[in-house]
Specification:
The complex is a heterodimer of chains A (about 300) and B (about 300).
Chain A lengths: L1 H43 L2 H4 L2 H6 L3 E2 L7 E2 L2 H32 L2 H15 L3 H19 L8 H25 L3 H9 L4 H12 L1 H17 L2 H6 L17 H8 L8 H30 L3
Antiparallel strand pairs in A: 1-2
Chain B lengths: L1 H24 L11 E6 L1 H17 L4 E5 L3 H9 L5 E4 L5 H9 L5 E14 L8 E2 H9 L16 E5 L4 H11 L8 E3 L2 H10 L3 E6 L15 E3 L1 E2 L12 H6 L5 E8 L8 H9 L2 H9 L7 H12 L3
Parallel strand pairs in B: 1-2, 1-3, 5-10, 6-7, 6-8
Antiparallel strand pairs in B: 3-11, 4-8, 4-9, 4-11
Helix pairs in contact in B: 2-10
Classes of the chains: A mainly alpha (about 300), B alpha/beta (about 300).
Chain lengths: ~300, ~300
């Protein structure tokens, strides 16, 4: 009787312990996020003691190492980031969605087993390799196709960034499509609908929240991409006027400038402020994606 | 229990943030000032050159551990000011602002001269332009001259290639040739080679690179780009950066001294002193020439001599 009680007690303790350890780690992730946010804020906030808010966010000229007059406007960088990542989505959404549709609705289980890991492998191609490919292969091709003198521009960058975003979109869209209840498909077929009508009128509308979330996450991935834009986006200071303009996204700016910024200077602080802007943008994209995922759970 | 786990996590995160932020502020404990190790960082123009010299030096001094990396002159000087390295390679002279930053950190920065370099202005080989004046080059990079037909070329918008702000070549070219802000349309490239690669693909392109990059592996001038001779005063003969004497004497206008900076006067007999002396020895200067630069002019060597005399 006594031993039994002891063992039960032991089991109970072990269970409580593992429960609390896992809770601790879960809390750690949240606090790590809060920690990064606080670190960026504390380091970056000093920027606004010297640079007014309006000038920072609405100024179109980013030039901390100027010949005469330093300027700290990040609008051109933000627009650069938006152009590259939105254009990247133009490439990535159709491709990612088509892959998801094929994997979920068309492919046999065997083909899916082979293809899905392959698509996910694309995500693991180092972006510097894609950048190199862009520099040597795509940039000259795009220059010739569009009759511009140089292919180092927003279009080339977004094409490559699009490739990076495809696996994210494909994977999440596919999950969303497969999560649609089989009964929906069966009911649609029973009413005499063809397979494509079923997909178009039943499955996709039912999965629309998951698909939207996939697109948002793909967008977040594209906004954060650094190496590719650093190598092929051209990185000029000029405010972009078209998708064939060279652009300098926020990520590339941080990567270029942080190397020469002396710790603690305004230049250094301002780069953390840009980091904070990036963090907030990607955080909200993820956050919204999460909300959308939960709104219309079927 | 919930409170304890949250408290623990706070301590953990707080500790991590504190650890990293303190790491940013203080010197990393491992890197410089080791008696048999030299950590050198900075100018991308100099990386290959200093690596070659260091390799030669290591042959005569086994056990010496010399690490050379790039990143740009600004990066090198920033690292020196942050106490992370022994020698900063810089293809431009240190700025007043940087000297002030050093003073506020109680550092007595010393200057050393390593080689002479010319910055070549390059265009696509099919560009009919034969020469440009220094003023024209400046106006092109300022954005005042935006079409090749304004400087005697064929009609077409000029596309500008330059380095990134971290580069000493970027700063030197701006301060001595452009003498104003670069046109904002200039593409900022990762390195000299990236500029060469871009210009050879771009019929309307113009770029500037160190003379080490206009020769191929055999030491011959490259065929896939065209080096533009520069006219200093209107009516005079253009000068090419391929002319060694002109670069050494400064007759080629876009020429410069290649510097190295150290945080304080080296101790007598230290590895640092030995290395610096080797760099300006006949053997060291031969390596400089073989790396695509020109050896030091007399006036530069004299300044190095003054530097060595302060070592006690």
């Amino acid at each position: 009787m006594r031993t039994w009680k002891f063992t039960k007690h032991l089991n109970f303790t072990a269970e409580r312990l593992s429960y609390n350890v896992s809770r601790l780690f879960a809390a750690t992730t949240v606090l790590l996020l809060v920690g990064i946010f606080l670190f960026l804020t504390i380091t970056g906030i000093g920027t606004f003691r010297h640079v007014p808010f309006g000038e920072f966010f609405l100024g179109t000229n980013w030039n901390p190492t100027a010949y005469q007059q330093q300027s700290w406007g990040i609008l051109a960088l933000v627009v650069g980031s938006l152009i590259v990542s939105s254009l990247a989505l133009v490439f990535a959404i159709p491709l990612g969605f088509a892959i998801a549709l094929y994997l979920s609705e068309v492919a046999s289980p065997r083909k899916r087993e082979i293809l899905k890991p392959l698509v996910e492998t694309v995500a693991s191609v180092p972006s510097v390799v894609l950048g190199l490919l862009g520099l040597i292969v795509f940039a000259p091709v795009i220059a010739r196709l569009f009759h511009v003198s140089s292919g180092l521009n927003a279009l080339t960058a977004s094409f490559l960034v699009g490739i990076i975003a495809v696996p994210t979109i494909a994977s999440i869209c596919e999950d969303a499509l497969r999560n649609v209840n089989m009964k929906f498909r069966e009911a649609s077929m029973a009413l005499g609908a063809t397979k494509w009508t079923t997909i178009g009128k039943v499955v996709v509308p039912a999965a629309v929240s998951g698909i939207t979330a996939g697109v948002m996450l793909g967008f977040g991935r594209a906004v954060g991409e650094t190496m590719i834009v650093l190598m092929v986006a051209g990185n000029s200071r000029a405010f972009p006027t078209s998708f064939l303009s060279p652009v300098r996204p926020m990520t590339a700016t941080i990567a270029i400038d942080i190397k020469e910024a002396v710790v603690g200077t305004l230049h250094w602080q301002s780069l953390f402020a840009i980091g904070l802007v990036l963090f907030i943008v990607t955080f909200f994209l993820n956050f919204i994606a999460d909300i959308i995922l939960h709104i219309r759970k079927v | 229990m919930k409170k304890i786990s949250i408290l623990l996590a706070v301590v953990l995160i707080g500790g991590t943030v504190f650890f990293f932020s303190s790491k940013f502020r203080r010197k990393p404990p491992s890197s410089p000032f080791h008696p048999s190790r030299l950590v050198i960082k900075g100018s991308d123009t100099e990386v290959q050159l200093v690596s070659n010299v260091a390799e030669l030096f290591s042959k005569g001094n086994p056990g010496a551990d010399i690490r050379v990396t790039g990143g740009g002159s600004g990066v090198g000087i920033a690292s020196l000011l942050n106490g992370e390295i022994d020698i900063a390679n810089s293809s431009r002279a240190i700025s007043d602002k940087e000297i002030e930053q050093a003073k506020s950190k109680q550092m007595n920065i010393r200057e050393f001269r390593l080689a002479r370099d010319g910055i070549a202005v390059i265009v696509h080989p099919e560009n009919p332009i034969q020469q440009l004046t220094l003023e024209q080059v400046g106006k092109i990079y300022k954005g005042d001259v935006a079409n090749w037909n304004m400087v005697g070329g064929t009609n077409g918008a000029i596309s500008l290639y330059g380095r990134q702000t971290t580069s000493g070549t970027f700063v030197f070219f701006r301060d001595f040739v452009v003498k104003a802000e670069y046109a904002s349309s200039m593409r900022n490239m990762e390195g000299n080679q990236a500029i060469v690669d871009a210009v050879k693909e771009d019929q309307k392109g113009i770029g500037y690179v160190g003379i080490g990059y206009i020769k191929d592996a055999q030491g011959q001038s490259r065929k896939d780009i065209k080096v533009i001779p520069i006219v200093v005063v209107a009516g005079q003969q253009p000068v090419s950066p391929l002319n060694k004497e002109a670069v050494q004497k400064g007759e080629y206008p876009i020429s410069r001294t290649i510097f190295q900076y150290i945080a304080s006067t080296p101790k007598s007999g230290s590895l640092l002193e030995k290395f610096l002396r080797f760099e300006v020895s006949t053997e060291g200067q031969t390596a400089v020439e073989q790396s695509g630069f020109y050896s030091l002019a007399q006036s530069d060597s004299a300044k190095n001599q003054l530097f060595f005399e302060t070592i006690k």
